[in-house]
Amino acid sequence: MATDDAPIRFELRRGAVTAVPLAIAVGLFGVSFGVLSVSSGGMGALPAVVMSVSTFAGSAQFAAASVLSSGGQPIAAIAAALLLNARYLPIGVSVAPYLRGGPLRRLLKAQLVVDESWAIAADGDGRFDPHRLVGAGIVLWLAWVIGTIVGVVGGEALGDPATLGLDAAFPALFLALLVGQLRSRDAVVGALLGAGIALALVPFTPPGVPIIAAAAAALVGLVRR
Amino acid sequence: MSDAWVVVAAVGAGTIVIKAAGPVLLGGRPLPERVQSVVALLAPALLAALVATTTFGTGQQLVLDARIIGVGAAAVALLLRAPVLLVVLVAAAAAALARLAAIG
Fold first, then answer.
1. Which of B3, B49, B60 has its CB closest to that of A74?
2. Chain-chain contact of B7 with A211 (C-beta, under 8 angstroms)
């Protein structure tokens, strides 16, 4: 038995160790989410921490927080966040053949899939190591949750002086996330189109709706090829 | 339940379902290629929309203000490969300074 478990423990640890440098970045990201959540118009400390524990998807959490703080309806915040997370559908499909165990085990392991843990688990030939995925996923999740808690506590301590330029923090964050997604020509076209659609709709629709409508830009994926 | 909790609950439940759909429901069957090519572009399209609206939008108005200075500073920080927290701090500081300069 012990000899059978050894490769599993090796890959678990390898995933965890590989994830540490990324976990520092993810943790700092969590700090930003925490700080913004306790600023004026934010969702508040406890909802922010509960969201980081249960959702574990940074860009979707920032999107929901941003739509809420701009005065958008909850339904608009939910739709924007879930459209952003739709990319986890094909990512989940790609790791599915390698996740073992009953439905509940697979459901839990699937929650540890984020862009970073997915990249660490990839063997480069379309195959994925499930144990490396779990090791990396746990480390990244801990960093995200701890970062959020640090941000919530620190943000409440910072108070008003920090809010003078805080409205520039959201676009800066989304810009950082966007840069990581521009991996193809189609992605650049989709991004430009999405930004154009959203800006054109801002004067005519309630806050949040322009973001959801920008999803239509993804249809260029059908036309261009 | 407050708006924040409604959003936290719905986004949490929805994300769990999306992440688990492949491994639990589809059992590894691939998505149709046309669906994949659309889904792949959702994140860049929505993130760009968020960059645009949080830079220029205030309620239902488009305005040019100190946020542009902040976002420009963030873009420079990103080009220099600064970590995310620094990018955010640079953006906030640049916008704050621009406001102080305009007032003073």
1. B3
2. no
What is the distance between the terminal CA atoms of chain B, rounded to a whole angstrom? 44
- Contacts of residue B91 in chain A, CB cutoff 8 Å? 165, 168-169, 171-172
Contact B13, A77 (CB under 8 A): no
Calpha distance A29→A23 (Å, rounded): 9
Predicted TM-score (pTM) of the model is 0.85
Going by C-alpha positions, the residue among A111, A215, A118 that lies closest to residue B40 is A215
Do A217 and B41 count as a contact with CB atoms less than 8 A apart? yes
Provide the CA A7 distance to its chain's centre, in angstroms: 30
Residue A127: the pLDDT is 84
Contact call for A78 and B100, based on CB within 8 A: no
For residue range A35-90, list pLDDT tens digits in order. 889 987 889 999 999 999 999 998 999 999 999 988 899 999 999 999 999 989 88
Q: Where are the alpha helices (DSSP H) in chain A?
A: 2-37, 45-54, 58-69, 74-85, 88-95, 103-111, 115-121, 130-158, 169-181, 185-201, 209-213, 220-223
What are the tens digits of pLDDT across the range A125-157?
A: 778 899 999 999 999 999 999 999 999 999 888
Q: Which of B6, B34, B47 sits opposite A178 (nearest CB)?
A: B47
CB B11 to CB A96 under 8 A?
Answer: no
Please report where in the chains the tokens 């500073």 appear, as a residue.
Answer: B73
What DSSP string runs through A109-165? HHHT--HHHHHHHB-SSS-B-HHHHHHHHHHHHHHHHHHHHHHHHHHHHH-GGGGGG
Q: 3-state class of A223 per DSSP?
A: helix
